[in-house]
Amino acid sequence: MHPLLHTVFKQIAKANLRLNPAKCSLFCQQTSFLGLVVSVRGVSTDPTKVEAVEKWPSPTSTGEVPSFLGLASYYRRFIVGLANITRPCTS
């Protein structure tokens, strides 16, 4: 067994956690997690989730605006100047 993997398993056991083998993927180059893609290159947006945001219907009432802003702000770390872009919607 790879030494790093052994260390990870040891820490999981030490914390009294259990893994479900059916939900585990080992030695993958990338995986999707919470709407993000985690890979050897780092963390990026999941293209399918970005597409869902792009296709989101325009808000038709003031009550729908905060819902959309909440959805869009999930990716705020990937959107330069999001606060400036959304300022008209938050005023």
TrEMBL record:
Transmembrane segments: none annotated. Gene3D superfamilies: 3.30.70.270. InterPro entries: DNA/RNA_pol_sf, Retrovirus_Pol_polyprotein, Rev_trsase/Diguanyl_cyclase. It comes from the Eukaryota. This is Reverse transcriptase. It comes from Aldrovandia affinis.
